[in-house]
């Protein structure tokens, strides 16, 4: 048996110039590490940009300086529509982000309905705070003393808060008249003159405005005229009628009780009031003057106190608190006449002779 032995003369073939052996370029772990670092840098850049974008949304208002905008949130409006409205008005820079912010703060369902005064210079936090507070924008409505209901209605319509037609319906609403103990088919005289601050009614409905005026009349008179108890409705109405005459006859504070005393004296002795403003009221809202003798001789005008004795059928305007107080506490005297001095004041007389003399003096001043 023979055993092959290694040939001592044998030599392994060396690679020639045409033969190449592959050598590794790098380790697999190195490539993964570079890819991870690249991804990390990208994520940091994206995250930083998102964080900066979120910071700008939350802390940088859309405009500087800002402008005030009235935004009306209608009852039942979804948060999608609300945020879209805010973006269109440039109150927020992004409606979608505002909606997400409100939900994140747990206030997405707390936005109130109403008209809000917002500003394009506010941050989303300020905007959301107002919308969820219920602090709606209040409109200023000034009603002077001595206006008829239709003059008041025109002011309301000019304010844009309600239509004249709705106002006319509200002042004759039987339910409102019953609730406020007004023994008439109309609220004339009880629309208390005041400066009101109120939210815009829906659908130009004047009923909330009329309710506010009637409530103010009740509150003011209960506090200042009869704190120990309100008189019966008929007595209150007669007082309002008399006060409306005082309101229309003089604008001087020092004359109100005296004018009321003249009317009280005439009523006591059965003398007709002969008050021009009552006759003018009875001619209706389209009458613009002047007042002629034929108007004073017309018995068909139920408000013509030259032809009809006693108080007119109803108030001829809404008196202020001073005239109401004068009607409640008229000055005690024996005067039964007065005539204008053409400067806002009046001359008062006890007798017809004194009165005629004052009238002649007035006419000379008028150049007649």
In short:
The chain is mainly alpha-helical and 368 residues long. It has 14 helices and 6 strands. A two-stranded antiparallel ribbon has the order 1-2. Strands 3-4 form a two-stranded antiparallel ribbon. Strands 5-6 form a two-stranded antiparallel ribbon.
The tally of domains stands at 2
Structural class: mainly alpha
Number of strands: 6
| Biggest β-sheet description | 2 strands, antiparallel
Q: Order of strands in the sheet with the most strands?
A: 1-2
**End-to-end separation:** 170 Å
- The H/E string reads HEHHEHEHHHEHHHHHHEEH
Total number of helices = 14
| Relative strand content | 5-15%
Q: Give the helix proportion (percent range).
A: 40-55%
Cα-based radius of gyration, to the nearest Å: 42 Å
Characteristics:
368 residues, mainly alpha, Dna Ligase, domain 1, two-stranded antiparallel sheet, two-stranded antiparallel ribbon, 6 strands
Describe the protein's architecture and organization:
With 368 residues, this protein is mainly α. The chain has 2 domains: 68-133, Endolytic murein transglycosylase (Dna Ligase, domain 1, 2-Layer Sandwich), CATH 3.30.1490.480; 142-333, no CATH class. The chain contains 14 helices and 6 strands. The strands form 3 sheets. Strands 1-2 form a two-stranded antiparallel ribbon. A two-stranded antiparallel ribbon has the order 3-4. Helix 5 (149-159) packs across helix 6.
């Amino acid at each position: 048996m023979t055993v092959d032995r290694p040939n001592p003369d044998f030599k392994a073939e060396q690679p020639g110039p045409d033969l190449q052996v592959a050598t590794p370029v790098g380790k697999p772990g190195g490539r993964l590490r570079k890819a991870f670092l690249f991804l990390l840098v990208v994520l940091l850049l994206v995250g930083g940009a998102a964080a900066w974008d979120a910071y700008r949304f939350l802390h940088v208002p859309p405009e500087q300086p800002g402008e005030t905008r009235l935004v009306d949130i209608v009852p039942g409006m979804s948060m999608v529509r609300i945020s879209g409205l805010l973006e269109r008005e440039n109150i927020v820079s992004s409606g979608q982000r505002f909606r997400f912010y409100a939900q994140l703060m747990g206030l997405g369902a707390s936005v109130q309905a109403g008209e809000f005064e917002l500003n394009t210079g506010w941050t989303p936090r300020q905007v959301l705070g107002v919308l969820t507070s219920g602090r709606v924008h209040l409109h200023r409505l000034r009603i002077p003393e001595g206006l008829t209901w239709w003059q008041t209605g025109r002011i309301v319509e000019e304010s844009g808060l309600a239509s004249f037609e709705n106002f006319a319906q509200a002042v004759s609403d039987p339910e409102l008249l019953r609730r406020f103990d007004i023994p008439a088919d109309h609220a004339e005289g009880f629309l208390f003159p005041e400066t009101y601050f109120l939210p815009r009614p829906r659908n130009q409905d004047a009923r909330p405005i009329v309710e506010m005026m009637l409530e103010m009349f009740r509150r003011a008179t209960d506090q200042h005229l009869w704190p120990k108890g309100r008189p019966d409705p008929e007595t209150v109405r007669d007082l309002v009628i008399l006060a409306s005459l005082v309101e229309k006859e003089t604008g001087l504070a020092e004359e109100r009780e005296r004018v009321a005393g003249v009317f009280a004296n005439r009523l006591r002795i059965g003398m007709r009031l002969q008050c021009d403003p009552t006759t003018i009221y009875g001619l209706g809202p389209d009458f613009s003057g002047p007042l002629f003798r034929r108007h004073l001789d017309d018995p068909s005008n139920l408000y013509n106190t030259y032809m009809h004795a006693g108080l007119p059928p109803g108030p001829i305007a809404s008196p202020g608190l001073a005239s109401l107080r004068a009607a409640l506490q008229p000055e005690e005297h024996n005067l039964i006449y007065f005539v204008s001095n053409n400067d806002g004041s009046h001359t008062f007389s006890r007798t017809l002779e004194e009165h005629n003399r004052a009238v002649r003096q007035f006419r000379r001043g008028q150049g007649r």
